[in-house]
Structure formats: C-alpha cells, structure tokens
Design goal:
The protein is of the alpha+beta class and about 150 residues long. The protein has one domain: Gcn5-related N-acetyltransferase (GNAT) (Aminopeptidase), CATH 3.40.630.30. About 30% of the residues lie in helices and about 30% in strands. A hairpin with a 3-residue loop joins strand 3 and strand 4. The longest helix is centred in the middle third of the chain and has 15 residues. The termini are far apart.
C-alpha cells in the first residue's frame, strides 16, 4: 500500500495511543468482561513499548503495530487501526507484508485475538490457524506451507 510508513512510538504518542486503544479495543474488552479503565489501558500500551510503531498513512497516524521479531518467530503483539481508516485494507496490507517477510526468513508468525473481535476473520483469511485458546482469546499462528516436491 503506498504512503504506508512506520515510526517508532515515543512518550509523546501515549495520548494518541490511549485514544486509539479506547476506540478500537475497549468494546472488545467490555464484551469479554475485561477491565477498560485508563490504568489498565495504559498498562497494555506500555507493555513492550520499545516494540511499538506508529503506522503512518500519508504522514498521518493511522494506528499502532507492536511487533516482536526473534530468531525463529515474529509475534504480532498488537495491531490497531484507527476506526476512520478501517475497512480500507490497511490491516491486511500490513499483515501481508509481515507474513511475506517472515516466510522469506522461514519464521512462524503468531498473534492472539479476543474471541469477541471480528478481526479474527481477517487473520483466518490470510492463512492463520487457531493453535490454542484461553477463556478470552484465540492464539493463532501462520506457517508458510512448504511446497511438496
């Protein structure tokens, strides 16, 4: 997707990220009976904050990608798209890039999704499979299909 860039999140982004998270995630947390207060929200934002990137579309903040790349796998910790930018294929484009990068390196991509979050349909459509679950979330992984010779 053109004009899609990332920049590392900083402390100056916390207000934006609080607002973004409340808009994108709190309905799912509420539906799962999980806490939605400011303190709990802030804790989730600060979790592995060094891996947080602001998604920029035409130089305007359009969401958050928090990603952990290790030697053998890539973990999508958080992906939030601003409601005003949802439904335009942005999440799909971002995930597709992550999947092709991981595949070229022979890595698994993992993420978790709240059971109340319809984003799981996007993940399934991209080839993620459910590999486990807990009370609130599905754990999903993407493995590159190795071609049979």
């Amino acid at each position: 997707m053109k004009d899609l860039q990332y920049r590392k999140a900083s402390e100056n982004d916390i207000d934006y990220l609080l607002d973004l998270r409340m808009k994108t995630m709190n309905p799912h947390y509420a539906a799962s009976n999980l806490p939605t207060d400011r303190e709990a929200t802030l804790q989730r934002i600060l979790y592995q904050f060094d891996k947080a990137n602001i998604i920029l579309l035409n130089n305007e903040p359009a969401g958050l990608l928090k990603i952990n790349r290790s030697a053998d796998k890539t973990e999508v910790l958080q992906l939030q798209i601003d409601p005003g930018q949802q439904g335009k294929g942005l999440g799909k484009a971002i995930l597709s890039d992550i999947l092709s990068e991981a595949s070229s390196e022979g890595k698994t991509v993992s993420l978790s999704v709240l059971k109340t979050n319809k984003a799981q349909h996007l993940y399934t459509s991209l080839g993620f499979k459910i590999v486990g679950e807990d009370e609130h979330s599905f754990f999903m992984e993407f493995h590159e299909e190795t071609p049979h010779s």
